[in-house]
Amino acid sequence: MKVTTKFATLIVALGSLAIASEAPAQQPIIIKFSHVVAIDTPKGKGAEYFKKLAEERTKGRVKVEVYANSTLYKDGEEVDALQLGSVQMLAPSLAKFGPLGVRAFEVFDLPYIFDDNNALHKVTDGPTGKMLFQKLESKGIVGLAYWDNGFKDFSANKPLRLPGDVKGLKMRIQSSKVLDSQIRALGGIPQIMAFSEVYQALQTGVVDGTENPPSNFYTQKMNEVQKYLTLSNHGYLGYAVIANKKFWDGLPADIRTTLEGAMKDATKYANDIAQKENDSALEAVRKTGRTQILTLTADEKAAWKKALAAVHQENESRIGKDVIQEVYKETGSKP
Question: How far apart are CA 280 and CA 294, in angstroms?
């Protein structure tokens, strides 16, 4: 009797094992994370760090595929792809939301609206930052975090020491009405162009100059095709890490909570290294000897601020005067 019982137990166990072996393994949730800059930039490194944390903390239940340098979608195409669900996560520049009809984000494009990172983070970490993300939800987008890339400098093949030096130059910009009015205020000719096309355009003379934080300027090798870099620090370049709302809301609650934690830590990492990466890139540009770096005097810097101050008032009706005033209030400064 005992033998029969043991034999029956063994048969049941073997049957269970066979069923388990035939059951398909649970497939991981795939997140395609696309961006347009190099891996060795603050955003590129932030994306890789998020991938690492997300996969570790979900124990493989999530797999993040990072596509850098426009390998999946070009600058200007990626937000449409996110809305369609072809990609689950992006980190586009804040200027990208103006064409979507969420023009309040263009407040970040205003020249000299932030004195430094402390003033900036009062906005991105405060009520205005949250309010702007809420405006994206009707577009099928969830805002997850703001990532810094730093403050932009002007470059050209002639020295730009004063605002008048820009007159007549074709300057590459992102698609932004605010940036368009910025270049026009300096007497330049704005040229909208995808980020991946800028190097060749500079090399062939299609455009004369551009604006970038040092990390983008160096990693895209613009120092090979630009003779001068003016440390104007005139505008902020940052990104919004966003997700397809339907995808994000449809995640299991525990997975979503884990990913939110991973994003919070990846954001701190990316923002902490942004200034360091820009400082290192600037030193690397200096060492190549191919681009002369121009440091503005106090009077020269004041001239740039004065020339660009009108851009704020010109764009009040576009961005929203209330949004601009709220930023002034949160930062405690006004140009």
Answer: 17
Q: Are 218 and 279 in contact (CB under 8 A)?
A: no
| Residue given tokens 């030096």 in the structure block | 165
Query: In sequence order, which residues have a C-beta less than 8 Å from that of residue 221 and are 6 or more positions away?
Result: 199
SS3 205: coil
Residue appearing with tokens 């002007």: 154
Residue 173 forms beta bridges with which residues?
192
The pTM (predicted TM-score) of the whole model is 0.86
Question: How far is Cα 178 from Cα 93, in angstroms, rounded to an integer?
Answer: 14
168: alpha, beta or left, given left = phi > 0 and alpha = psi -120 to 50? Answer: left
First-to-last alpha carbon distance for the chain, in angstroms, is 93
Give the CATH class of 28-331: alpha beta
CA 169, CA 205: separation in Å to the nearest integer? 11
What tens digit of pLDDT does each residue of 15-63 get?
A: 544 444 444 568 999 999 999 888 988 999 999 999 999 999 999 999 9
Name residue, tokens 């709302």. Answer: 245
Average pLDDT score over the chain:
92
H or E stretch including 116? none
